[in-house]
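Need a sequence for this fold. Nothing fancy.
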């Protein structure tokens, strides 16, 4: 026995409580502690049955993910099978073992529960096999026991898809045996007594494995879905293979097959990248110098200005999180349009079964439309989302300074403008911050939180915490044109256009990036967002007048001729009424003229060069951003690109990907590009330094982490 698992008794029932906060992960000592507890109670004649429960906020949330890094870097490789031996031993216990689940039983947590003889859960509990989200498959018999409890269809769904299910659904599929209303431990103890000594090993329940004829189409359909929905990912297909093994092999051989597949996935680049993303999403919430001691401002009621594309989406985000919103527009028609779009979006979600009509009505009721500033004085925060123009933003912030109460947060959703200049018109720049949502705001997970030079720590801490409450991943960035994401997007899309000018076809550029794993090619993305958006910004900033630097010409020409992308049914592609892209002869002509103007004889360009040019442009700009301190860590950039720009999570983000390729190689290629294409490709000094020192962006992050920790120590 150890501190991680405690034993106690309630009459004739032995109780094992896992105590490894915050999520009772199966860190070294936890499985061993559970086994020691089971053995202790097996040898105790006064104990008739055993209940396994989680202390604190949850049952076991899975294997300790930090341990995987140790395993892949040459550490303790034997833990996987060791854990299986422990679970098999628990399953063979001579007294009934009952798992009592609250919070989440995920991955190894559900696998532990399935090795018990029975499972009971509170209605709010969730269970799942989320391993594929980390690029691995269940490695402790999840793919073998789950089909025996839930059937092959549900098991492939859960093991390949990775999404958790509710306790009610788990009950329906036989994964749990009873829902406990009220006190979980007492409910589990009562259940244990009812069993009257009867054990039931999951490995022996073969009925739901049925026969090959029934399973074959289920497995084929699952593979089809995985190839479509989890494009390029190896783990979902491996998970299906492992479940198939359960249907064809005896339990122990199936377990062996699962182990082989688990090891293959664990040692893949995809798994290393996805684990980096898992911890990265949590790391971005940690801001050096802003600890838990910084007070947060309660945000219970908000206001949004503008009910356009972004304002409407942002209002939905708050309403979804249960926060009432005042939504202001300039005239009734704009307000009605905005509300109608919100209702349409909600109705679509109801149609798709994401929530009920009643939930939709509740959400809409939280959004109060208005044409005046009445009631703004009671709001804790306002998010401005009017047209992108400095003069208008300044006018609005001047008005907000008058109507908002002291202590309220004044946020702008600007995507390019200087937050400090916007703040300068208020008497309280410390309360001004950028909250840069991504379109569609109610769908995209990213929220760039833009820190102005005067923004207070309290305002930053509040917005970081608020992002989690409104189901966003908040990443703190510095104030510069385009902030982090859009600033990097500029060279990314610039190179896509240059490649077309040099001879690549529009389709070749987009296919290369799509095959690399991007959700969409860069040119198709431009058509979707509207080519005119960038064109107007380039004109506002005077970019098009600077002739000493090579400028991408084609999009400006397309816009001058009225081809703005999907909204005009014509841009890089031609679109039919269903927005299906087709090759555009009109774009061909404009491309041809631009090539002539730039003096290019078209050459053939392969997919590898296309990917290198476009992705390394991201990396080089990312390195500059890091050096300028506009992003705190390389991983912050990775999380921005994965959650805001469709970058494939299994490549870990652009900076992690560069580490995977090797910074020396990336640096060399960037030097080649500088020779071929000029000063736009000057290597970022940080990249040069890291490459020459044989280091990685991950090493850079470690240093940031260490200096943040020592700064905290120095203060305390
Ligand atoms: N291992 C190690 N650390 C973990 C962990 C795990 N399985 N799960 C969570 N943590 C850490 C987080 O990194 C975070 O640390 P920090 O405070 O230092 O940043 C802390 O626990 C709290 O986590 P969250 O902030 O995510 O807490 P939430 O309450 O928002 O969410 C949760 C809780 C739903 C359990 C979520 O943490 C989660 O999804 N965890 C991962 C679950 C998972 O993937 N399990 C499967 C692991 S693989 C496995 O089991 C393989 C097996 O088949 C052998
Ligand atoms: P939009 O044109 O769809 O909506 C702007 C709305 O603001 C219009 O409905 C307009 O009537 C309203 N408005 C203008 N002046 C107003 C005033 N004084 N009071 C109240 N309402 C007023 O614009 P969109 O796309 O929603 O952009 C809004 C902001 O969000 C801009 O700053 C933009 O840069 C930023 N942004 C836009 C993204 C996008 O993809 N569209 C992504 C991220 C940020």
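Here you go.
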């Amino acid at each position: 026995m150890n501190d991680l698992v405690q034993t106690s008794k309630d009459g004739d029932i032995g109780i094992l409580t896992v105590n490894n906060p915050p999520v009772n992960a199966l860190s070294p000592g936890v499985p061993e502690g559970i086994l020691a507890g089971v053995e202790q109670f097996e040898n105790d004649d006064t104990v008739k049955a055993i209940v396994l429960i989680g202390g604190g906020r949850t049952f076991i949330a899975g294997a300790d993910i930090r341990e995987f890094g140790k395993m892949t870097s040459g550490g303790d490789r034997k833990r996987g099978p060791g854990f299986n031996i422990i679970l098999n031993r628990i399953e063979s216990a001579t007294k009934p073992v009952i798992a009592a689940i609250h919070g989440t039983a995920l991955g190894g947590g559900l696998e532990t529960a399935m090795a018990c003889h029975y499972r009971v859960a509170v209605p709010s509990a969730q269970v799942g096999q989320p391993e594929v989200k980390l690029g691995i498959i269940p490695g402790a018999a999840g793919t073998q026991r789950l089909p025996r409890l839930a059937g092959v269809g549900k098991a492939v769904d859960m093991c390949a898809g990775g999404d958790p299910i509710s306790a009610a659904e788990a009950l329906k599929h036989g994964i749990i045996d009873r829902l406990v209303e009220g006190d979980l431990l007492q409910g589990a103890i009562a259940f244990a007594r009812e069993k009257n000594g009867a054990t039931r090993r999951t490995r022996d329940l073969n009925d739901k494995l049925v026969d090959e004829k029934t399973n074959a189409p289920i497995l084929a359909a699952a593979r089809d879905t995985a190839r479509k929905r989890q494009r390029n990912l190896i783990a979902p297909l491996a998970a299906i293979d492992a479940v198939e093994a359960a249907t064809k092999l005896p339990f122990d051989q199936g377990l062996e097959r699962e182990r082989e597949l688990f090891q293959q996935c664990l040692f893949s680049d995809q798994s290393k990248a996805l684990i980096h993303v898992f911890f990265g999403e949590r790391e971005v919430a940690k801001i050096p110098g802003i600890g838990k001691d910084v007070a947060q401002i309660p945000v219970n009621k908000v206001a949004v200005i503008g009910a356009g594309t972004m304002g409407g989406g942002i209002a939905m985000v708050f309403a979804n999180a249960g926060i009432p919103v005042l939504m202001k527009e300039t005239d009734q028609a704009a307000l009605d349009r905005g509300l109608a779009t919100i209702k349409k979006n909600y109705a679509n979600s109801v149609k798709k079964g994401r929530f009920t009509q009643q939930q939709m009505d509740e959400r809409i009721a939280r959004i109060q439309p208005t044409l005046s500033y009445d009631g703004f004085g009671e709001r804790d925060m306002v998010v401005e989302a009017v047209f992108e123009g400095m003069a208008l933003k300044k006018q609005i912030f001047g008005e907000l300074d008058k109507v908002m109460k002291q202590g309220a947060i004044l946020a702008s959703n600007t995507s390019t403008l200087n937050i400090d200049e916007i703040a300068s018109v208020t008497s309280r720049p410390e309360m001004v911050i950028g909250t840069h949502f991504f379109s569609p705001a109610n769908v995209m997970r990213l929220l760039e939180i833009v820190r102005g030079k005067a923004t207070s720590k309290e305002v930053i801490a509040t917005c970081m915490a608020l992002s989690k409450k409104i189901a966003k991943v908040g990443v703190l960035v510095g104030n510069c044109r385009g902030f982090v994401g859009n600033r990097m997007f500029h060279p990314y899309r610039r190179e896509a256009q240059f490649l077309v000018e040099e001879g690549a076809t529009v389709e070749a550029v987009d296919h290369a990036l799509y095959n690399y794993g991007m959700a969409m090619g860069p040119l198709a993305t431009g058509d979707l967002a509207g080519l005119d958006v960038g064109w107007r910004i380039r004109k506002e900033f005077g970019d098009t007048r600077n002739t000493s630097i090579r400028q991408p010409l084609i999009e400006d020409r397309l816009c001058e001729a009225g081809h703005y992308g999907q909204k005009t049914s014509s841009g890089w592609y031609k679109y039919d009424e269903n927005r299906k892209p087709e090759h555009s002869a009109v774009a061909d002509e404009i491309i041809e003229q631009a090539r002539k103007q730039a003096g290019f004889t078209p050459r053939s360009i392969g997919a590898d060069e296309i990917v290198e040019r476009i992705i390394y442009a991201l990396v080089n700009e990312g390195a500059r951003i890091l050096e300028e301190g506009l992003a705190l860590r390389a991983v912050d950039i990775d999380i921005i690109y994965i959650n805001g720009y469709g970058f494939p999570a299994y490549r870990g983000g652009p900076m992690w990907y560069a580490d995977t390729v090797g910074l020396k190689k990336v640096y060399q290629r960037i030097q080649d590009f500088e020779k071929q294409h000029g000063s736009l490709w000057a290597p970022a000094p940080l990249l040069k330094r890291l490459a020459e020192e044989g280091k990685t962006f991950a090493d850079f992050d470690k240093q940031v982490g260490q200096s943040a920790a020592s700064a905290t120590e120095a203060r305390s």
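For context: The chain has three domains: 5-267, 302-477, 485-702.
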